[in-house]
Amino acid sequence: MGENKVTVEFVEDVALICINNPPVNASGVVVRQGIVDALDEIKAAGSAKAIGLYCAGRTFIAGADITEFGKPPLEPGLPEVCNILEDNEIPIVAVIHGTALGGGLETAMGCHARVAVPTAKVGLPEVLLGILPGAGGTQRAPRLAGISNALDLILSGRHVPAKDALEMGLVDRIDDGEPREVALAAAKDVVVGTLATRRTGELTTTPDDAAIETTMAAVQKKHPHLISPQKCVECVAASTGDFKEGLAFERARFMECLPSPQSKGLIHAFFGERAVANIPERKAQARDIASVGVIGGGTMGSGISTSALMAGLPVTLIEVSQEGLDRGVATITGNLDGAVKRGKMSPEKRDAALAKLTASTEMESLAEVDLVIEAVFEKMEIKKEIFTKLDAICKDGAVLASNTSYLDVNEIAAMTRRPQDVLGLHFFSPAHIMKLLEVVVGEKTAPEVVATGFALAKKMRKVAVRAGVCDGFIGNRILGHYLKTASYLVLDGAHPDQVDKALEGFGFAMGPHRVGDLAGLDIGYMTRKRLAATRPAEERYGGAIADRLSENGWNGRKTSKGYYVYEGRDTLENPDLNAIIDEERARAGITPRVFSDEEIVERYMTAMISEAARVVEDGIALRPVDVDVVFLSGYGFPRFRGGPLHYADTIGAAELVKRIEAYAQEDAHYWKVPALLRKMAEDGGSFADLNKGK
Ligand code: COA
């Protein structure tokens, strides 16, 4: 085996092992076997006094091959390979460039010394995939770096720069140069004794019970739903004992995590965030975007401007009045100051970004920009006026985007003589923080304009998801549907606080009423008014309670009162809420009934899945995974559940159909079985099959 993914080279009295498994040198079975074979070959040759192990391409081993997870194990396993490296008679020095992550760092820790190039980073991000470092990482990291550093590394999953890794003791030296040259020099230094080597497993860990206790309490509080963080702490705690026993303890904990639905959900999220870039337009040449115009200095426009500035792009901000413009500039400045405070940006970078901001009350200032994002009030008439003007002002080839969250992008594009250059770029508030960008593709949008939207998202470090045109696109369309369920649950007998707590128990960061209060209840109020005329007669109206709150001026956090009352940092009961609920139930002739938390979650999730299935069926989302990523990056969906349609597969189409049919007994208009789901139930199919193109 080996397939030339692992090669050996002898230079004088040292040997070099090179791993070459693009794109990220994941340590799949071929690499693992290749390493074992390479060590055998070097031993048989008998000439080498030290070995340098390095990688070709852009990075050191970036981890175990995640695609092998969940499949029958292929020998030799990574734990075994790390032990074989450690037991090797001839000392081995690992040379790290790019990122040594997970199984990559574990491999390096199995070696007898580590040298990093200055730009290298190391980390143990397994916890982010619902597992733990299971190839000795939890036993070797504390032996090299101490308990406290190991806990930080393993529980945060963060990428630690070489300099810090050196300070922690994870690496022994930093040398600049090409990995092969560094490996050759390091191996020679081992031979002459200027680079010390030892077996990590022979070191001891100094106990630190205080760090273990504090960290355990912190993870139980921060991640009550997750199983792997606590197991990580237990494993690190075990590193003060016998090394072999520690490895066995770690292996057992790892095997408890690997098959868990949480780990499957987190791995689905990892690959999903990459899969969404696979769009029909991916081969089109994106246009160069060297400058951006933003129309509207409200929260949205300012957030988008901030995001573009943080990506290094010059921004021209347009507002109708000088006052509005000043407010916009102040918001952007505040956003950038916030980024500095959170350590996301240096003060110098902030100053450089602000220097690239131009503010103007004249739309004509957009004549030369490469891309314009309109982010004004959600009224079709205003948008049409703006796009007519943009058509007259902007240079040929400029991309014209609307940040509308539900309006018809085709209608907006039709106001221009260049509908091929128009698309929707739907950011989520606060736009400089939220990861999601829905790229809304109109009937006439050119492929290179779609590709430009995706390229812009990448520059802004956002996750772009391709969406078709419909009211609300992917996310808000589904949201509009399942929020009705939340309102029906309250009308029928559940309390808003119970609904919130049940869904927080499921894993959402905040329940829908808390989110409503945060976003502002006036937004939903306006949407209900807008849609009132088109609401079908058979549709049950769920907005009565929320309407009453808004009509009282209780629009949530910004008015200190909504479903809850907000006092400083405290969230309290709204003492007036129950009376409103009782009145609206009485008005609708409802005798309230008791709902279990389980039923609340079931109904809410079934509603979400139903509309999500229709969004896939209608081709608004390319695949189920696109819906999943929208919810994971824009709607606070619990990542460990993988997204609504990954979660749907864990329930199964047949069960979902059964649920919908049962609910339809009460409300046949709202609860309808999506054709796609019915077909899946009949054929035994799944959303995962659709992701694979089956
Ligand atoms: N196993 C299998 N495939 C992997 C992988 C792994 N550990 N890490 C990355 N890949 C794949 C990606 O899916 C992607 O495939 P695609 O091009 O078909 O979409 C490709 O390698 C490149 O990865 P990408 O993330 O797009 O590149 P990047 O340069 O932005 O980031 C990393 C590189 C290594 C930082 C990033 O991929 C990463 O964090 N990987 C996971 C590391 C990890 O968790 N390791 C621990 C596992 S034990």
From TrEMBL:
- Kindly state which reaction or reactions the protein catalyses: a (3S)-3-hydroxyacyl-CoA + NAD(+) = a 3-oxoacyl-CoA + NADH + H(+)
Q: Where is the 3-hydroxyacyl-CoA dehydrogenase C-terminal domain?
A: 472-566, 600-684
Pathway membership of this protein?
A: Lipid metabolism; fatty acid beta-oxidation
Q: What is its main location?
A: other
What Gene3D superfamilies does the entry give?
A: 1.10.1040.50, 2-enoyl-CoA Hydratase, Chain A, domain 1, NAD(P)-binding Rossmann-like Domain
Keyword Lipid metabolism included in the entry's annotation: yes
Pfam family example for this protein?
3HCDH
Q: What InterPro entries does the database record attribute to this sequence? A: 3-OHacyl-CoA_DH_NAD-bd, 3HC_DH_C, 6-PGluconate_DH-like_C_sf, ClpP/crotonase-like_dom_sf, Enoyl-CoA_hyd/isom_CS, Enoyl-CoA_hydra/iso, NAD(P)-bd_dom_sf
Compartments in which it is found: Peroxisome
**Keywords for the protein's UniProt record, in alphabetical order:** Fatty acid metabolism, Isomerase, Lipid degradation, Lipid metabolism, Lyase, Multifunctional enzyme, NAD, Oxidoreductase, Peroxisome
Q: Describe the location of the 3-hydroxyacyl-CoA dehydrogenase NAD binding domain by residue ranges.
A: 292-467
What family classification does the UniProt entry report for this protein?
Answer: Belongs to the enoyl-CoA hydratase/isomerase family. In the N-terminal section; belongs to the enoyl-CoA hydratase/isomerase family.
Q: Could you identify this protein by its name?
A: 3-hydroxyacyl-CoA dehydrogenase
